[in-house]
Every structure is written in C-alpha cells, then in structure tokens.
Design goal:
The protein has 576 residues and is α+β, with helices and mostly antiparallel strands. Helices cover 21% and strands 23% of the residues. It contains 12 helices and 23 strands. The strands form 3 sheets. Strands 1, 2, 3, 4, 5, 6, 7, 8, 9, 10 and 11 form an 11-stranded antiparallel beta sheet that branches. Strands 12, 13, 14, 15, 16, 17, 18, 21 and 23 form a 9-stranded antiparallel beta sheet that branches. Strands 20-19-22 form a 3-stranded antiparallel beta sheet, with no helix packed on it. α2 (60-69) crosses α6, α3 (84-96) crosses α5 and α10 crosses α11 (425-438). The longest helix is centred in the middle third of the chain and has 18 residues, at 371-388. It starts with 53 loop residues before the first helix and ends with a strand.
Length: 576
C-alpha cells in the first residue's frame, strides 16, 4: 500500500463528542517524508494477553508453515487476532476521534488519518481520548509481537523504533490499484480489518460489496510483472489481520473499489528492517529483498521496456510522406471521412477549430461522428455493457472482454480491453472508425485544423470496463517526441461530467521525474502540475498537442459509472 501519510503533523483529534463521518480536507499535494523513528521502547505496555488472542501465539509454528506455503506469495490471515472489546474501542476512536483527509491520485482514492506514530506528540488531554488506539499501536510494535511476526514470516529482526501505521476509511467508490509496497526499508505489510462488527456480513463481505484485497501472481516464471487477474481475494472481515512480506516484483496486491454503502474501515502499516543501532541491523540488509532480476512496481512503472509491452505502445507507423496543412478537404477525402459529422468538414468550421487550437493547443469537438453513425453505435455499446454486467454499481468480472478483444497490460501500468478484430456488429463499426483515424485523409484533416506536420500514427480502440480499468501516469504514458493526441470518447450518459466515477483523461507535467513515493505522478486537484483534464463524454473528439515531458492517464473507471468508457485513441508524431 502506498505511503501517503503526512508525517509532519500529529493526527487531529476531534474534541466534540462525535466527528461527522463526512469530515475531510483538501487533498494532500506532496508525498510524505520517511516514517518517523521515535524510540518506543520506553512505553508502558498493557499485557499482550489483554490485546491479542492467546491462541494466535500458540499457533505460531502452524501459522509459519501455512505462511510459507501460501500462494501466490507468502501471506497469512488471522481471525480473530485481537481482543474484541479492545478492537471495538479502537473502532469507536477511529470514527469519533480521528480526522480524515481525502487522498486521490491516479493510483488510489480513499480517506486517511495522520500517522499514528505521532500520537505521542499530542497534548496529554488528547492522548487520553485515544487509549485503545495507543494500546493497539504499542502492542503491535512491542518486542514480543515483533518476535511473533518474525517467527511467522521468517523475515528476521524488525525495527522497534520505526512505527509506520495509519487508519483508512474506504467509502463508496474508493480504491487502491495494483502495487507491491516496495518503498524504502519496508519488510512486512499488515492490514487490520474493522468493518461494522454487528452487521450481518461482519464475518466476510459479499463479493458484490467490493473492498477485497486482491493478491496477484507473477504473469510467468520468466517475468516480474503481475498476472492479468488476481489469484486470490481476501474479503473484509471483522477482527482479521493479514500479513505478507514485502517482495519486489512479487507482493503485488490491490484493494477493490468499495461498491456498497458501508465503508471499509482498516488500519494499514508496515514493520521495517532494523535501523542503525538496533539489534539485527546490517548495512547490506536491504539486499535480502532483491531476488536476481526482480523489479519492484516502481521500477516497472519507470522501465522503458514497458513502452513496447502493449498494443498502443508500439512504434509509430509512418505515412508515406509527411502530411502538412492543406486547408481544404478534397472531395475524395470527404468520402474517406464520411463517418465524421459533415459540419466539421466545412471550410468555415475548420477555420474556427484551427483558430481555437492555435490559441490553446487543445480543443474538444462535440458530436464528432456523423449523427447516423453515432445513433447506430450507442445501442451496441449499451448492449455489450448490459450483457457483461458492467457499470451501474456492478464491478466487471476479471476476464470480461468480448469477442475480438484482448486485455492490454501489465496492470502495474495499465489495464483495459483492446479491439484486435471485428467479430460482431459492434466490432465492425468500431474498426471502421479505427481505419478512418489510421488513414491519410484523416491525417490531412488533422494537419489542417492543427497546423502541424504529421509523420506517423499509432492507436487503438479501447474499452475501460467499470470497476476494473485504468492507465497510470507513468513515464510510459509519455512520448519521446511531440505528438498530436486525437481521442474520440464514446461514453454514453452524463454521469461522467463531474469526474466522481472516474474515466476522465488527465494531462500532467511530469517535470524531471516528478513522481510521488508510490510511483504516481498525478498530484491533487489545484496543483500546477495538472495541465488539462477532460471528462468522459459521448461522441466527443479531444485534440491535444503533447510535448515529451507531459504524461497522461485515464482515471480508474468506477463500478458506479453508467458503463464502460469506450474510445478510439490515436497519437500522431509531429515533425519538428
């Protein structure tokens, strides 16, 4: 799970009797500094038997065996692991005494408290309002519990001075996309689940509620990239602890979007390698994390070879000769462009488009397709989503794609369906649009309205399935040359406009490798790094001139979207 906590301030504690569940602040704009290393050994601990289930410790050897044998990588889940009364107290304090900040990037969306390592910095009166949280935190990082974790996971000594934990509230629509937790000197990840203990599904959420922890295997023994689909999903359950060792290129996991109205309440944290001066510290201890050839999620996001991994990241297909501004569309070209709304082929409208594009370097053209073409296409798109049970609160099932479609990955960078062949009426119509975008007549029209000389093109017909798909703002989402992006969005409905259900197209100035510590480069709304955001819409063409230092992403499409975000997305290399 990405490190996103603000460690420069202590968690805010509400002094009222109740803290409204909707309390949030403006999203954080900067990645957090390294975890705090305050010495915790002087704390007075309650006996561990008053915190944890006694049977958990007696089952350490059994847990160690099952941990080592677990797939797709070593992990364990323990339930119950904690005193029920203590955990209920923790839950009450989390809901009534802590303040939460909404956090959102291209890779996640959720609400998070401050770092619980900073509880000791609170005034005494405020500390007294969080007795259960303090007891749980101190017990988790006690020598006895760290020894238990080491024994179960076989990870060796763990730091007692570096506390790293926070509380999370995943509300409807919140999610965390795939990653492997490899940041800094993290050694063991853990999640403590605190859903409503008195709800009918306290012993395990239903599949349709979402919020599950997805564990991904490697796509093959010869690759460190994750597989297309998760091998295992662990559902939220009251009083459940999940632990796994942090392994580069192996401990891939994600948190499904929460689809129901109840929230997924949890505590996430990490145990770290020993710090200098602590027992077990070794200068080369971090080498234990790296198997020969292993690549962490962050490395995979940044790796240049990922540009060639996926249909849309192929080389540009050159035109026979550079296509430049012609200003006038020939009768032959108009025949080739018959799928377009004829208004956009008139000289007066083209002049207006060219003037606007010259001023802004981007433009949105509504009702771009010929009305008859769009009218015939929309019911086919709706029927495909209805058949596959996509959207309107339903998460698409992994593997949903349709005839003629493949899944484009790897999911550490992107996941969406890509049309490869026309196998039905929908495929035929979409492939006809693809052929128009690929042809020289469309390139001549683009050159006329953009005043850019175009050398080549590459592109795809894409389907971003609700509850599954996205692209990340990784270096792979950029280009080594200036490009003209032409994206025809075909997302039926108006629910998309405010961006709440995702699916929007965002352009970001990546600067000089300006990435947060979770690998994403998208920063919170209002940051100067965001250059342009366009919501998903029906039958709208977006034209954007993009320079090499600009990256882009399609925000994860929520299960509550009205359906898939369909588009025809092309890039045209510009002659400079």
């Amino acid at each position: 799970m990405p490190e996103t906590k603000d460690k420069q301030s202590v968690p805010a504690v509400e002094t009222k009797d109740k803290c409204p569940a909707s309390t949030t602040e403006t999203k954080d704009k900067r990645p957090a500094p390294a975890a705090k290393t305050t010495d915790k050994r002087a704390r007075t601990l309650e006996p561990l038997t008053s915190t944890f289930s006694a049977s958990m410790f007696t089952a350490a050897d059994e847990l160690s065996t099952s941990f080592a044998q677990a797939t797709p990588y070593p992990h364990t889940r323990i339930a119950p692991f904690c005193s029920d009364s203590l955990l209920r107290g923790v839950r009450t304090e989390m809901l009534e005494r802590l303040h939460y900040t909404q956090k959102e990037t291209d890779i996640f969306k959720y609400h998070q408290s401050g770092d619980l390592a900073n509880l000791d910095g609170l005034p005494a009166a405020e500390q007294a309002q969080l007795p259960c949280l303090r007891q749980l935190r101190d017990s988790l990082y006690s020598q006895e519990f760290r020894d238990f974790v080491s024994r179960v996971t076989g990870c060796g000594p763990l730091s007692g001075s570096r506390t790293d934990m926070s509380t999370n509230r995943y509300m409807q629509g919140d999610h965390l996309l795939l990653h492997d937790d490899v940041i800094g000197d993290r050694r063991v990840s853990y999640i403590i689940y605190l859903p409503d203990p008195d709800a009918a599904d306290a012993s395990g959420w239903a599949d349709e509620s979402g919020g599950g922890l997805e564990l991904y295997a490697r796509e093959s023994p010869n690759s460190w990239a994750p597989a297309e689909c998760p091998e295992k999903t662990i559902r939220p359950r009251w009083n459940q602890l999940v632990m796994f060792t942090v392994l580069p290129g192996q401990s891939h996991h994600a948190v499904q979007e929460v689809c129901g109205e109840r929230e997924r309440l949890s505590i996430q944290g990490w145990f770290h390698f020993p710090q200098p001066g602590e027992p077990g510290y070794s200068v080369d201890q971090m080498q234990q994390l790296w198997t020969d050839g292993a690549e962490s999620t962050l490395s995979q996001i940044a790796a240049s070879h990922q540009r060639a991994h996926g249909t849309q990241e192929t080389e540009f297909m050159p035109f026979p000769k550079c296509i430049e501004d012609t200003s006038i569309v020939s009768s032959e070209d108009k025949t080739e462009l018959r799928l377009m709304n004829p208004e956009y082929l008139s000289e007066s409208v083209m002049t207006q488009v060219a003037s606007r594009f010259a001023d802004d370097s981007h433009i949105e053209l509504a009702q771009f397709l010929n009305p008859a073409v769009a009218s015939a296409l929309q019911p086919l798109l709706n029927a495909a989503d209805e058949h596959d049970k996509v959207g309107n609160g339903h998460m698409a099932a992994h593997g949903t794609r349709g005839a003629g479609w493949i899944i484009n990955g790897p999911p550490v960078v992107r996941r969406f369906a890509c049309l490869q062949s026309a196998e039905d009426a929908l495929g035929v119509q979409l492939m006809d649009i693809h052929k128009m975008f690929e042809g020289p007549a469309f390139a001549r029209w683009l050159a006329s309205v953009s005043a850019l000389a175009l050398r080549g093109r590459r592109g795809a017909v894409r389907r971003f399935r609700a509850g599954l798909d996205y692209t990340l703002a990784s270096p792979d989402a950029g280009s080594s040359c200036t490009t003209l992006d032409a994206v025809l969005c075909l997302a039926p409905g108006t629910t998309w406009l405010d961006g709440v259900v995702g699916g929007y197209h965002c352009y970001v100035d990546s600067g000089d490798g300006d990435a947060s510590n979770d690998g994403s480069v998208y920063r919170a709304a209002g940051d100067d790094g965001i250059l342009l955001t366009t919501p998903a819409s029906w039958n709208s063409l977006s034209l954007v001139m993009r320079e090499p230092n600009v990256v882009r992403f399609i925000k994860y499409v929520s299960a509550h979207a009205p359906g898939s975000r369909w588009d025809v997305s092309f890039e045209y290399s510009v002659d400079e």
